[in-house]
Amino acid sequence: MKTCSLIQAGRAAACACALSCLSLAAAPAHAALGDAPTVPPGASSHPLAGGAARVVSYVDDGGATVNEYVASASGTVFAYTWQGPTQPNLEALLGRYAADWRSAAAAQHAAGRDDLHGARVVGAQVVVETGGHMRAYAGRAWLPAALPEGVAEGDLQ
Questions:
Q1: Which of 1, 91, 112, 151 has the fewest CB atoms within 10 Å, measured from its CB?
Q2: Residue 68: helix, strand or coil by DSSP?
Q3: Which residues form the signal peptide (predicted)?
Q4: Residue 84 falls within a domain, yes or no?
Q5: Are 55 and 48 in contact (CB under 8 A)?
Q6: pTM for this structure?
Q7: pLDDT tens digit string along 23-52?
Q8: Rounded CA separation 138/84 (Å)
Q9: What gap in Å lies between CA 49 and CA 44, rounded to an integer?
C-alpha cells in the first residue's frame, strides 16, 4: 500500500482547487429570471416600450443569440428570448423558476400534451416556449407577473 505525505496531499488539494477556480472563471456570467442583469462582454442594448424596459443582446457559447429583457423600474430580468444552433441552458436562465417549469412540463407530459418540435409550458409563475429542430432552435421564457407596464407578451421576440 502506497502512502503520501501531508505535503503531497496539500499539493494535490491546491491543484484541485486551482482547477475548479479556473473552470468557474471560464463559465459565462449571466443573470437568471428575477435577478439583476449581468452584461456579458460584447453585448448590445436598446430600449423597449418607450423606456419601460431594455433589451440586452449577446451571443452565448453555443452560438445562440440571447435577448435579456430588463425592467427599468425594478432593474430585474423579466424575460429571455433566444434563437440559434443550440438551446441555452434553461435551468440557468430560469434560476429559481426552473422547478416551476419542470413540474408544469411533467404535468403536461403526463397528460399527453407535449410535442416533438415545440412546447409551451405554463407554470404558476413562468411561461416557457421552445421550438425548432437540430441547429435551428428558438424560444422564450418570461414572468407574466413581472411584465412592465407597456410591455406585452408579443414584444418578447
A1: 1
A2: strand
A3: 1-31
A4: yes
A5: yes
A6: 0.79
A7: 333 334 579 999 999 888 889 999 999 999
A8: 7
A9: 17
